[in-house]
Amino acid sequence: MFFTIPTLLTWARIVAIPLIVGVFYLPVDPATRNLVATVLFVVVALTDWLDGYLARRLNQSSAFGAFLDPVADKFLVCASLLILVQMDRVNALIALVIIGREIAISALREWMAQIGASRSVAVHMIGKLKTTVQMIAIPFLLFDGVLFGVVSTHLWGTVLILGAAVLTIWSMVYYLRKALPEIRAKAR
In DSSP terms, which residues pair with 152 in a beta bridge? Predict the structure, then answer.
C-alpha cells in the first residue's frame, strides 16, 4: 500500500517540490532556472496522470494512494504558486483564492466524510478542469519567456491562471452547493 509503483510516483511528486523551489536559488542565469523549473514541474505533473493509470492497470489502487494523490497535487500547486508570487509572476490575491479554495474544500471533504456524506462532494468535472488549467498555467509562468519566437508564456500563463482562479471559485461554489443540504441537516 505505501510502496506500490503508483504510490512511489506520488511520493516522488512530493519529494520533487523542494527541487522545483530550489532551482530558483541556484547560481545560474534566470533563463536556465526558468527552463529547469518548468521541465521539472511538467515531468512531476505528468506523474499525476501516470500514477492513476498504473494504479488502475496494475490493480494497485489503495485508500492510502487515494488520500496521498490529491495531497501531492495540492502541495505541488501551492509551492509553485508561492514561488510565482515571490517572483512577481502571479498576483498574491490569485494565489490566495486558489490556495484558500484548496484548504476550504479539503476541510469540507473531511467533514463530509465524517458525517457519512462524502459522495456529495466527490470530485466533479469542474474540479478536474480547474486542475488542468492550473497545471498548464503554472509551467507557462515558471518558464516566463517566449516559446518558438512568438508565444509569450507570461501572457498566456497569466490569462490561464486568471481562468483557473475563476474555475476555482466556480468549483468551490459547486461543492458548497452540493454539501449545503447535508450541512443544513446536521445543523439542526
Answer: 146
Q: In this predicted model, what pLDDT tens digit does every residue of 11-39 receive, in sequence order?
A: 999 999 999 999 999 999 999 999 999 99
* Dist. CA 80–CA 17, nearest whole Å: 8
146 three-state secondary structure: strand
Question: How far apart, in Å, do the first and last CA atoms of the chain sit?
Answer: 39
CA–CA distance, 177 with 171 (Å, rounded to integer): 10
Only one residue has cell 506523474, namely 47
Instruction: Tell me how far apart the alpha carbons of residues 54 and 7 are, in angstroms, rounded to a whole number.
Output: 10
Distances (CA, A) of 6 to 50, 57, 151, 176: 8, 10, 35, 31
CA atoms within 13 A on the CB side of 88: 0
Q: What is the pTM of this model?
A: 0.88
Q: How many CA atoms lie within 13 A of 168 on its CB side?
A: 24
Give the up-direction half-sphere exposure of residue 171: CA atoms within 13 A in the CB hemisphere: 28
Q: 12-45 as b/e, with b when 16 or more CB fall inside 10 Å?
A: ebbebbeebbebbeeeeeeeebbbbbbebbeebb
